[in-house]
Every structure is written in C-alpha cells, then in structure tokens.
Amino acid sequence: MRRRQKTVETDYSCEDRLEAENNTKVPSIVRTEAAREESAEMLLERILSRPNMAEAYKRVVKNHGSAGIDKMTVEAMYAHLKEHYAELVQSLSNGNYKPEAVKRVNIPKADGGQRKLGIPTVIDRMVQQAISQILTPIFEKKFSDNSYGFRPGRNAHQAIARAKGYYEEGYKVSVDLDLANISTRSTTSFS
Q1: pLDDT of residue 138
Q2: What is the pLDDT of residues 124-147, one digit of tens each?
Q3: What confidence tier does 27 reach under pLDDT thresholds 50, 70, 90?
Q4: What's the CA gap between 60 and 159, in Å, rounded?
Q5: Which residues contact 107 (CB under 8 A, 6 or more apart)?
Q6: Pairing between strand 114-119 and 103-108?
Q7: CA distances (Å), origin 4, targets 37, 71, 126
C-alpha cells in the first residue's frame, strides 16, 4: 500500500503588499524619490553613528580573524582608526568609500576538496558589521520562518528539527537547493 505524500505549498507572492489602484486607504510600498533619499540618509546616519561604529569595532576585535590583503591585524586597527576614523566616516558618508580587494585562501574540506574563503580587511569587516547591525533587524522580520541559513539565532540543528517535525506530520520529501548554482543538490524521499 502506497502512502499519500503531503506537499508543502509556500506562497511567495507579493500581492498582499501591493497597493490597489483605486484604493487610497491601502498603504503604498512605492515612495517618492525624496522619501527614499530621506530614508537612505537616515539609515546611513544610524550606520555611521558613533555607538554603532564602536559596537562594530568591538565585534570585529572579539571575532579576531586573520588580516586581509592589507596585512592590518585586529590589534593594529585601533591605532589606525585613531588616526583615520574621521576620514573613514567622511568617505562612507559621501559615497567615496571603496572596500579593499578580498584576500583569497583555500581551506581543505573533509572530502579532500578545497573551500574558497575570502578574507576582507579588518576595516572592511568593521564597515560590514556596522551596516549589518542596522539592516539585519529591519530585514530579519521579513524573511520566511522556514529559512535557517545565516540568520541570527538560527542554525542547522533547528532546521533539522523542523524537517523532523514535518516528517512526523507526514511529509516525506526533502529538497536541498544551492541557489548560488541554481541547481538541486539532493532530494531525499523518506518513504
């Protein structure tokens, strides 16, 4: 006797987020150019705020990590920022900031292959961290509850527990996608 398989249907449409043409009571997601610029300016102001940049600095120091292509270590970053902090903030503020090239290193994988890793400079990591600290709370609440990759407070163990829960509910197919390569890596049927 063959068991009927359940399928998970997910609707990713944005219909509920679009403004109806003739309904002015529905809030619009379309803003005027001035409103977009104001929002971008406000976000940039929050990103470049002294407390946010200080927190980003602390997190980069705490994570330590290797030097990037410029060979500046985490330990040397403080002295550099003491001298060049105003220039850094100004270049970010006026849109002239240019990240350095990323140092490429290969790390051996368990299967014998190589995993390519890119190591940004410590200053670029601090800038990325400052941006992430402001943007993550904004976008985090918009992500699917079924997404676990590279999300704060989420991990592979939770994803496995969710999959196990679906299995116990009667769902019998799991699909693992690699969106970078836009290919299906594996499909597992539990029947």
Answers
A1: 86
A2: 999 999 999 999 988 888 888 888
A3: very low
A4: 27
A5: 114, 115, 117
A6: antiparallel
A7: 53, 59, 52
Residue 38: other Cβ atoms inside 10 A: 12
Q: Which amino acid is at 90?
A: Q
Locus of tokens 């995993």: 115
Q: What is the largest CA-CA distance in the chain?
A: 75
CB 59 within 8 A of CB 77: no
Query: Which of 37-41, 46-50, 84-88 is the least confident region?
Result: 37-41
C-alpha–C-alpha distance, residues 26 and 189, integer Å: 43
Of 185 and 168, the structure prediction assigns the larger pLDDT to 168
CA gap 8, 188 in Å, rounded:
15
Strand partners, 115: 107
Choose among 166, 163, 141: nearest CA to 152: 141
Q: At what angle do helices 33-47 and 74-93 cross, to 10 degrees?
A: 160
* Contact criterion met (CB below 8 Å) for 88 and 57: no
At 37, list the tokens: 């610029």
pTM above 0.85, yes or no: no
Radius of gyration of the chain (CA): 23
